[in-house]
Amino acid sequence: MLTASRLVLARKRRRMTLSGLAKESGISVRSLTAFENGHKVPAPETIEALSLALELPVDFLTAPDVDEISTDSVSFRALSKMSALDRDAARGAGRIVVEINDWIEDRFGLPEPNVPTLPHLSPEEAAERLRALWGLGEGPIPNMVHLLESHGVRVFSLASDCSSVDAFSFRWKRTRPFVVLNLEKSGERGRFDAAHELGHLVMHSEHRIPHGVDAEQEAQQFASAFLMPKSGLLAQQLFGADARRILSAKLKWQVAAVALAYRLRDLDLLTDWNYRTAVKLLSQMGYRSGEPGGITRESSQLLGKVFSALRSEGIPASVMAKDINLTLDELNLHVFGLVPTVFEGGYRSSAPARPNLRVVGE
Fold first, then answer.
1. Residue 42 backbone zone (phi > 0: left; psi -120 to 50: alpha; other: beta)
2. Nearest to 47, CA basis, from 90, 105, 4, 85
3. Where residue 353 falls among pLDDT bands split at 50, 70, 90?
4. CA–CA distance, 21 with 27 (Å, rounded to integer)
5. Which one, of 291, 217, 284, lies nearest residue 253 by Cα?
6. Are 25 and 150 found together in one domain?
7. SUPFAM superfamilies of this UniProt entry (predicted)?
8. Total number of domains in the chain
9. Residue 323: exposed, middle, or buried by beta-carbon count in 10 A (0-12, 13-18, 19+)?
10. H-type helices in 27-107, by residue range?
11. From CA 275, how far away is CA 236, in angstroms rounded?
């Protein structure tokens, strides 16, 4: 029997209007509306047609009810400029990663959330306090994704068909923190996005709606201060740094060159004239639109360990996909493309022991 909430989720995940789904499935808008409202029960062959149109298994559409992630709990950037289709597709992707995480948590011991809320502090103060609480000192952060995972944040990749969204975060049921990252950005941009979403989790998610101009500006300031702490930059003696020194320093902090120049000006280590001169030269060298010779994009250590543990137990990723009622391709979109593409041998039908996965802290 069709589950109305799952039909809504699947349609939104696929960026479809009712008219679009009607065209793809051959089912009238009137019938689709009745299905989504729970006023009409479709025949099995109609559910099959919906499954084909939505490229999701029939089992996804007939599984138990799901709650949507509310728009006000998600840290969307430039929400007013985002189309409803883009917004809902991203929320649908977020709901699916919650399902994936539930499956993993049922089988593995994962780090418990350790993300304080510091709504009363300025972004600079919040970044400093969090670095102190997490024992990070004043140096560069080797890997932002691993750091988040080691403190209980569940990090997933944003499906490529939602590429218009930079990244977003939310606390599911006001407890479990999630960060979803766009993989089409540079490695440096990806680290900044992860720190930006951490800022929303720390400063906004439990106390304010985590979007809007002010919230976005605060998250940007938090990310800048968290990745490039004032004390660390002062120790590096970057006062008056030119483009050459900025390019050298960015290798240490693993940030975009222009982001580092902006941070130096923000700390009064560059005058406005120094800043404009450096950014003009960096732009001519291609650092405004990209990051030539940039770092490798960060990936999930935790999900890598999950798939490795499953493989060692003889459990193919297809079993995980089937349990969550997803196709293997859909699953792979949300897990940094870490689903093994080749698996040798059968799988064990009995449940494996529940191993504890530890993420190496940074």
1. beta
2. 4
3. low
4. 8
5. 291
6. no
7. lambda repressor-like DNA-binding domains (SSF47413)
8. 2
9. middle
10. 29-37, 44-54, 58-62, 84-107
11. 18
